[in-house]
Write a structure and sequence with these properties.
- Keywords: 4Fe-4S, Iron, Iron-sulfur, Lyase, Metal-binding, S-adenosyl-L-methionine, Thiamine biosynthesis, Zinc.
- Its EC number is 4.1.99.17.
- Pathway: Cofactor biosynthesis; thiamine diphosphate biosynthesis.
- This protein is of the alpha/beta class and about 425 residues long.
- It has helices at about 5-10, 15-25, 30-35, 75-90, 105-115, 125-130, 140-155, 165-175, 185-195, 200-205, 205-215, 235-255, 275-285, 305-315, 335-360, 365-375, 380-385, 390-395, 415-420; strands spanning about 40, 55, 65-70, 95, 120, 155-160, 220, 260-265, 290, 320-325.
- About 50% of the residues lie in helices and about 10% in strands.
- The longest helix has 22 residues, at about 335-360.
- The protein is globular.
- The relative contact order is 0.10.
Amino acid sequence: MKTQMLYAKEGIFTKEMQIVAQKEQVSQDFLLENIACGKIIIPANINHKSLDPNGIGFGLRTKVNVNLGVSNDCIDYSEEMKKVKLAHKFGIEAIMDLSNYGKTSHFRDELITFSKAMIGTVPVYDAVGFLEKDLKQIEAKDFLDVVYHHAKSGVDFMTIHAGINSRAVKVFKEGKRLTNIVSRGGSVLYAWMMMKQAENPFFEYYDDLLEICLKYDVTLSLGDALRPGSTHDSTDASQITELIELSLLTQRAWEAGVQVMIEGPGHMAINEIEANMQLEKRLCKGAPFYVLGPLVTDIGAGYDHISGAIGGAVAAASGADILCYVTPAEHLRLPNLDDVRDGIVATKIAAHAGDIAKLPKERMRDDDMSKARQDIDWEKMFKLAIDGEKAKKMFNERRPDDLNSCSMCGKMCAMNTINQISKGEDVNLI
């Protein structure tokens, strides 16, 4: 079986590529060239039959990922499936199942069968439950068994923290971080390495990992185990050392024909974001960048979807290719449906704001909205809004008597005033 990258290198335009070309309005040659060199990926496991493919990377719209999944404190798979359906409603391109408790395969299988969005997982989260072993009892190659199980089930991309190897750990130990390691998968692997006095198994057996990815066309999402968990720690030696390691692992994956994207920060002051986007693109030779936030402040608890959207917009405008959503519940608890909706909308706004900066054609929807506002065409405004359902609800909560305005401006609506004058009509404000 060949990956989308290997097909592109041979000049074969797959059905997945055809779908992406149509969605993005790009040419066959453009896609083939950029998939072949790794600047664009199409995560599409051969066993994910319900997938509606999407491309991630250079010259394409910024995509959005939604995280969900159960923990040992909240085990309600029906609630998580409602989140999946909500993500579909908003046209989300990627969903990550981050379940980290118990036997997760049944939910994951149901998710892959149902979802048209690409599905991602973090196999190390599932290791203890899948293997029924405590962390210290897990052997290096046991982790690959979990990867194989996820790949065979149809997972399109996997976060693999292969960059936190012994070299990166040495730099981390010598540094003085305020928040140490905040990556859940990274912390688990670091603990395993320290308890076993061993190399990171995903780094040590990276070639075996690539073989699994080749067999099912799984995209590697090379995880940022040493991402900053505070603005204090951003762009430090640990983060940059790991990024250098990820750049080397990217090259090895490309040589094998495996698709790759790089995961990035994290918490980061707004003035550092653009440089970090450029650094990843330079070091990793244009590999797509998958960014969590970045959160531009550490004190937005309860409103971190706003902190993340601010950073996400700057990141997308500066070259990030896919944004992982952040909800208001970040750092506080498992998000509920309302949190998920708020996180989705905030992140979609950020992604679109970034696209306006780098893809001129994406301004068309905004122009259509502006025209609808000038025409005071409420139904068209609701249709064009990212969350038109909420917009319509808010309008109707204080619905004006005269639909040529909203309840804020009343008869002094600027649009209506100019429309009347342009038609040669008198303006009556009483």
